[in-house]
Design brief:
It is built from no helices and 9 strands. The protein has about 110 residues and is mostly beta strands. The mean pLDDT is about 95. InterPro entries: Rieske_2Fe-2S, Rieske_2Fe-2S_sf.
Length: about 110
Amino acid sequence: MSAQRACGLSELEQDTPLRVELDGVPMAVVLDSAGEVHAIGDTCTHGEISLSEGFVEGDTLECWAHGSAFSLRTGIPQNLPAYEPVPVYVVDIDGDDVLIDPTVTKEV
């Protein structure tokens, strides 16, 4: 499969997660304060909560329900109660298009 348009770069607000779904795969897309775009799995591995409803702090996305923060770069939880990582997807930017292949995750 190849990368698909997830959203427009202009649709992203800095440090505000946007939930997208590509081929049934829910993701949280984040434009961080350094201007980098990240895409991670949208479901918290601790409590099946949508991470896109959480809070961006630095290079982490924190689950609003129980406070686990996941690295936007690796998907690894930075604190308990979550201990399983979420997938991190490769993001390409083409003009205003944010492109993501939901079948390709980054190796950590």
